[in-house]
Design goal:
single chain, 273 residues, alpha/beta, seven-stranded mixed sheet, 11 helices, 15% strand, disordered C terminus
Length: 273
Amino acid sequence: MSERHTPEPPGNGHKPSSLVPDLEKMEEGDLAEIRQYVQEDYWEHGKAKGLSGYDGAYINWWWVNRWMQCFAQVFPVRDKVILDLGCGYGSVVAGFQTWGADAYGIDISDYAVEKGKNLADYLAERLYQGSVHDLSRWGDETFDIIYSNQVFEHVPERYVTDVIAEAFRVLKPGGLCWFAFVTSTEENGVRGENDQDQSHINIHNMDWWRRRFFQAGFGERKDLDDALRNATTGYDHFSYFQEYGWDSIALEKPGDGGVSTDSRVTQIDPRKG
């Protein structure tokens, strides 16, 4: 894999929400600047203070259980080892646990991780603070499934290759990924005018992301992503994709074993792009 970057040491304390983050530093890969931004106000008062879409760090079991109903229709969750990249305070990790998985999460925000550990006892040993480009706490071929929902747009572009390479490394052969993004219609886009989250610093279209995943060796499982897009809850037929309009991709690491080896894996020439 490519040479791993070492994160800069984090700053101390929380940045007051009245201060504007240094976007240039964020975009250049200053992880300390990003970590300062995603502190208490980001999670607890994000909507009110124009920092994010969050309005409280808590496990919304109504949301989580309904999402797990949809996700588990498509991805085999029970008895699988799952990693949530950018787990926040662990809502989805908690959901995977209640659906019979052995789930873990990592997030750059120390506030979110510590808050999550206090929300449920069983999360205390399952949430870790750190950047998603460095998964060195886990060995090769550890996970059956890697999940990440609207996290990659927070990752400075200089770290994207490492994030993807690390995900590939810790995923078992035949293992699956599902990643959702904030995207643009442009190859190199910008944060939308209605997007108040200033840590959305890496906005691209899906073709840009596909090329990076294919270059790392992943194959696409469009059948799984399509099935998840059509999945609804059993009792009120609620669709998360219709509600949120996520752009997403399902991927598979080629090889025997893991969750799935399927002839429907598609690749492109990684030399393109």
